[in-house]
Design goal:
Elements: E1 12-15, E2 19-23, E3 28-33, E4 36-42, E5 58-68, E6 75-78, E7 85-86, E8 88-96, E9 99-103, E10 121-124, E11 132-136, E12 145-149
Antiparallel strand pairs: 1-4, 2-3, 3-6, 4-5, 5-8, 6-7, 8-9, 10-11, 11-12
Length: 166
Amino acid sequence: MMKDWNSADPKAIGVDEATAVCIDTAGKAIVFGSSSAHFFKPYCGAPERCVSGSSLNWTKGVKDYKVQGTTAGTNWFNVANWITGSGGVWEYWTVNNGTFAVQSSAPAGCGITSIAKPLALEISKPQGRRGLVVSTHGGAFLGKQVFNCRGQSPSVSNAKGVVILK
């Protein structure tokens, strides 16, 4: 999708046999059944090599939130923000010269790799001043300011409040 359709941030849902995903109007994807559902998005950019006749090379790969289904539907993932969930684990799927691997920690060399859980970031403009403040709302950095730009032109990729730290 990234190469053929020039999609900058594709997302996908994969559902194992004997499992269903029901998404409510708020974006809460509830997983029912005896197996798992997977919520995929690229971890750090497009594949390094994705051409016909050659082996795939995607060393940064895909981030997967794997959610175990239950008969009561107690486990879920939020497809409105693609960050929060309950009852699942983060996995990273990579392909190195055609060899597929699944790992529990993020591949090295892209963004912040020492944070085990995803963070929710809040972007705010200080009242009466120029600038931008980015604070966290999760993980080990709860409530800590991670970026502050006063009077400078910050490199923010999305005006809706998504910040990509590189």
